[in-house]
Amino acid sequence: VTHTCTFESSRLGLLDMPPLDVWSAERVITLELPLEPVRAEDAFSSMRAVLPSPLGSLDVALPDVWSYKCVITQELPLEPVRAEDGFLYERAALRRLIMEARRRDAPLRSPHTNLPMGPRFRLDTKAKRRIEMLVRDGDGPKDLLTDWAHRREDLDEVQKVTRKARQGDPRAMWLLGGWWQYGENGLRANARRAVDWYRKSAIAQYPPGMACVAYMMELGLGCRKDTAEAMRWWELAAVAGCDVAKLRLAELCAYGCPGFPANMAKAKLMLREVVGRESAYIQLSHEELECASLFLEELGG
């Protein structure tokens, strides 16, 4: 979809700096039908002639860079899609907008025009290549392009680890679970997806995955709260050598809980292994190990 914008040529001199986008320029310059219409590219050429030189290539890139910006995220899209309103959006952001409209049983409206639009969209490969070229050449505001590059690195890492997880790598499954749980590497926090990946990692006999699924089940995060099942996974993770599970099991054995009677001897044994760093999977921080040491002293170590 190509948009041709016209401006009142006599008013170009009123601008002291380049506009952020073509549409705001149209509003700033005039709200009237132009007497001397000129094309947008000619307008910006005229403005570049009077702009201060420190802007360098930025004034040239402005009309192009900002035309690719997603109005929902206010970022350059990693996966640009063209919606039925003719505008460009980040695919994930547009999908969330569509799903939210369906959830509320409300008509879907264009974020640009606020007019009703359909839910269909298509991947714009041409726009994607153009954005990649702009970032590679540095044609645009540095913060906008740097942000896109960082998000692209996160996306590439997530895709790489996801491929490994789907191929059966239990550590990759565990990593994905953590990213979904805490909303890292460009993912939006989603406890349910986190539990799914933690459970797959646990079933694949990866001790940190067992500990994480035990934690989620004990608190009911992203799944139904199931204390008995959580205790089972804590036990399995501790036996498999996860220091996080051993510390939690020590707390449970020291104080007891419904369905899990206190066992002071077992609590001390677990704490000694944690403090002595005798676990196959050491994930506790230095501060957490110090707390475990103090806990052991309180129990008469």
Word description of this protein:
By secondary structure, the chain is mostly helical. It contains 13 helices and five strands. It has helices at residues 22-29, 40-50, 58-67, 91-103, 125-137, 142-166, 170-182, 191-203, 207-219, 227-239, 243-255, 264-275, 286-298; strands spanning 6-8, 37-39, 80-83, 88-90, 121-123. The strands form two sheets. Strands 4-3-5 form a three-stranded antiparallel beta sheet. Strands 1-2 form a two-stranded antiparallel ribbon. Helix 9 packs antiparallel against helix 10 and helix 10 (227-239) crosses helix 11 (243-255).
Low-confidence stretches: 1-34, 38-63
Total helical elements = 13
Indicate the proportion of strand residues.
Answer: 5-15%
Radius of gyration: 28 Å
Largest sheet: 3 strands, antiparallel
Tell me the total number of β-strands. Answer: 5
Question: How much helicity do the residues have?
Answer: 55-70%
Order of helices and strands: EHEHHEEHEHHHHHHHHH
State the end-to-end distance. Answer: 73 Å
User: Mean pLDDT, nearest integer?
Assistant: 82
Strand order of the largest sheet: 4-3-5
Q: What is the general shape?
A: elongated
SS-based structural class?
Answer: mainly alpha
